[in-house]
Amino acid sequence: MTRALYILIIICLGLASCEPYEPDVQVDKSIVVELEIAPNEDPKARVHLTNSIVDPKDFFYYPKAEAELMLFPIGGDSLGRLPYALEPGCYTSPSMEIEEGESYYLQISVPQQGVGVLEAETKVPFADKLESVTIEDSSFQLIGNIGKGTLNFTVEMPEAQAESTYYHLIPSIINAEEAALGNIVYDDFLSSEIKILSNDNGIRRLIHKNGIFIDNSKLVDNIIGLELEYSVSAEFNIEDVDSVAFTLRTINNESMVYHDNTDRELRIINLPLDDPPISSDNIINGYGLFGAYSTHRIAVAIR
Fold this sequence. Notes:
mainly beta; 10-stranded mixed sheet; 4-stranded antiparallel sheet; 3 helices; globular
């Protein structure tokens, strides 16, 4: 069940009655997790139960005392606990180091709710590197107080080590306001600001994520053409917007399956309300995502 459907049902229940809704039947609960791990990034997990919307005693995402999360490398000696943090509002641990090529085990329990323990395993892929990114053409015009630009790039993808390799390519542009303060911060291009110039079935835009997803096994050519559109307020120094960064995430199968299923689900209008949450196939006794990726990044000057 998608998050949008959860919200819709909550609104309908609120409009239908001011009295708390008590379910007529006992519905079995399962744990749902959303967690992608990556080297040099803090693991951040969100957790809830499948029937939180029909049980007034449940929170959609659990507060710090509810769920217990353990994450550790398979075959390693160290155990890692992910405690709940009010900021950023999820289960996380800044001291946990994730390494490329390692397999990790996840265990989640919610003892107070009487649900089964969720277990999952995933392996962190090694990062493939972009061969090159070349700016082919650019245009910019000032319309009133807003400057609008268009950039055309040719991206040469890496030669994947295995046929079943998946990528998430995320272009981003310098934030003009932060640049005026002397900070280098990049903002992701929205999906609506990205046009895929290559006619290739291996390249897709997904509804719920910025950037593009690439299935290497379906690629006809490792050269991808992209057109990017951006806007910047004339109150800032437009010359500060001088580069675009391309972040290439090499994602594993679990992440690709989950995001592909999420996109497919969001495109289905008449989805049955009792369908279980989308899931990758590596989760036991629960639903959701436990995946991994590794990152390579390159910046390209546009001025």
